[in-house]
Amino acid sequence: MRSSQRGIVGFFGIILAIIATPLLIKSLKNQEFVFLSILLWFVGVAILIWWFKREKNLNLKFAMGIIFTGQIVMFVFGERYIDDNNNFIFNRYLLFSLFLIGFGLLYFLIKSRKRFAIRQYFSNEIKHQILREQDYKCASCKKFLNVYDFDHIDNDRSNNDYNNCQALCPICHALKTRKMKKNSSK
Question: Within a domain: residue 119?
């Protein structure tokens, strides 16, 4: 499974666990739909744990840890959130857990934004200018290009500025991509 697909599954797990936690608290208090709410919460947490074990980005792991901590606070102090009329009470524990969950979600979205950016391609005008500027040679190995790939220098596929483009032969492009993937997996 690709990392972007893992991220989507992980985000689904976050949402499922966030929704299931207050449902679980309320159903435990009322003794209604307990099995269903436990199952829903367990599936969400299982997805989170599965994603957490496979995610390599420490920022996203940190965000998930904050969200999970907020869910634990919500679950531990859950009986204090519900009054005798079965309504949620906004007290400091609930506000703190919602703050943790909200902060974790915001941090997750900010740090994963680049990962889900839509790939953009350079315009033909930029491609022709780069080829002429490089004298139709690879920017890395300086061999003449029969076949060429246009590379985003900073690896941000949504940044199509002229200064972010270089023409590479397929071999140099593959080597750069492998080196980038090898460095990101460490």
Answer: no
